[in-house]
Amino acid sequence: MKKYSIGIDLGGTKILTALVDKQTGEVIHSVKKKTKKDKGPKNIIKKMIDSIDELLNETPIDDISSIGIGAAGQVDRKNGILIAAVNLDCYDLNIREKIKKHYNLPVYLGNDVEIAAMGELKFGAAKGYKDVVCIFVGTGVGSAIIKDGKIIKGATGTAGEIGHIIVDLNGRPCACGAHGCLEAYASRSAIEKRIEGALKKGRSSVIIDYMESGKSITSHMIHDAIEQGDELVTQCVNEAAEYLSGGIASVINLINPELIVLGGGLIEAVDYFYQQVIKKAKAKSLPVPASKIEFKKAGLGDYSGVIGAAFLENE
Predict the structure, then answer these.
(1) What is the average pLDDT across 259-278?
(2) Domains observed in the chain
(3) What is residue 1's predicted lDDT score, i.e. its pLDDT?
(4) Cα 253 from Cα 232, distance rounded (Å)
(5) Which among 122, 146, 235, 280 could disulfide-bond with 245, CB atoms 3.0 to 4.6 Å apart, if both were Cys?
């Protein structure tokens, strides 16, 4: 059996590509590029190909069995098609076909949170557990459900869309086209919009000192503003924590997992947010499942997705 695979985590903000040792889960080398989704699907494919080429040039290893890709959206795993990815502005994109013609390797496609959950299950925070929900908070809010050690994919292969649980019937518009989705309240993008809206209305905040024209408010900016006791940013983060904890409490009551793994850029960078979400989720859950639930941060950090993607050929 060949020892290595290439794993790609295709997200709304970044594309992370890595060479992974399949025996140990070790990331041998990685390449990170900005997604720049505004330049369209062709550019996203080009970015992935450039990343793979760079990786292969910097790590001249022939013992590679496959390329696995986790994309932020709904996927057709059998045909390798990204059906709908609102945070990438991609629809019906045949990723497998476009990547495979450049390399003499099998190409596999999965959902980005699904592959991150696979990585955590094999080598990270969920190792040794059987009933787990992994929730990743960044540009959007995604999740994957693990039952008896297996990812639950659902009838159409789209199970785990916690970000599109409706939390307000007449609420904020979501990128998916619906209104009131959890993602529109609890993601980094949602916090960014709340902060920017308040700034336009004349609220003051130290985050202005970090902001660059035309660029997003990052999770690290949010962290730094909270560390300085910024009232506006703390208020917006608390609001997001209220909504996310409510969504997680619903998951705890409905699925009754033994563990919830929280990851993604916002969780990694803003520990205050992570702690608030845990405290509030336990308080909002029914007493019996709340008494047994465990919470952990994703143990593989940025590499959860690329490690999981490297094992897609085994699923």
Answers:
(1) 96
(2) 4-120+303-314 (3.30.420.40), 128-298 (3.30.420.40)
(3) 61
(4) 32
(5) 280
Beta strands 132-137 and 141-147 are: antiparallel
Q: Which of 313, 282, 272, 255 is nearest to 118 (CA)?
A: 313
Residue 10: closest CA among 70, 68, 87: 70
- Compute the distance between CA of residue 107 and CA of residue 101 in angstroms, rounded to an integer: 10
Q: Answer yes or no: are the C-beta atoms of 249 and 281 closer than 8 Å.
A: yes
Distance between CA 267 and CA 276 in Å, rounded? 11
Q: Please say if the pLDDT value at position 113 is more than 70.
A: yes
User: What is the spatial distance between Cα 186 and Cα 244, in angstroms, rounded to a whole number?
Assistant: 5
Angstrom distances, CA of residue 36 to CA of 12, 58, 142, 210:
8, 24, 20, 21
**Distance (Å, whole) CA 137 – CA 268:** 9
Structure tokens at 278: 């845990």
Residues 223-241 have pLDDT tens digits of 999 999 999 999 999 999 9
Which secondary structure element, helix H or strand E, spans residue 237, and what is its range? helix 231-255
Does residue 149 carry a pLDDT above 80?
A: yes
Whether 133 shows a pLDDT value over 80: the answer reads yes
CB 251 within 8 A of CB 262: no
